[in-house]
Amino acid sequence: MSSIQFFCEDVDFQLDQSELLLDWLTHIASDHNVPIEDINYIFCSDEYLLEINRQYLDHDYFTDIITFDNSSKGQPLLSDIFISVDRVKENASNQGVGFDQEMHRVLVHGLLHLLGYNDKDSDDQILMRQKEDTCLSLLKK
Prior knowledge:
Layout: E1 3-8, H1 18-31, E2 36-44, H2 46-57, E3 65-69, E4 77-84, H3 85-95, H4 99-114, H5 122-137
Parallel strand pairs: 1-2, 2-4
Antiparallel strand pairs: 3-4
């Protein structure tokens, strides 16, 4: 049985409509014919995620999300996805969108990485944004 779970680390955060979001994310993976073993979304602060970025990726900057794919090739998804609530709030404000909308985009962004989509170059970034938008359109609030 697949499992997507939400956790908090060093922040007091409650994800609204978590059951709806679990169903939505599971549906997206299913639409890509990719089974899920365990995906853990861990909500944290900028400082917490910065330390992970430094320690594991040798990057010294803030980011909104880091996705660790712990899956073996051809096996169900097994991942830890860290999301900075601070960064999502700031990005939402900077982009003139609501916090929930930006959080949903970041949630699906991490899943899309696990499904094989990248965002390293401009063409990949355009495709990733299109996939995010398509997934967001499937979310029935």
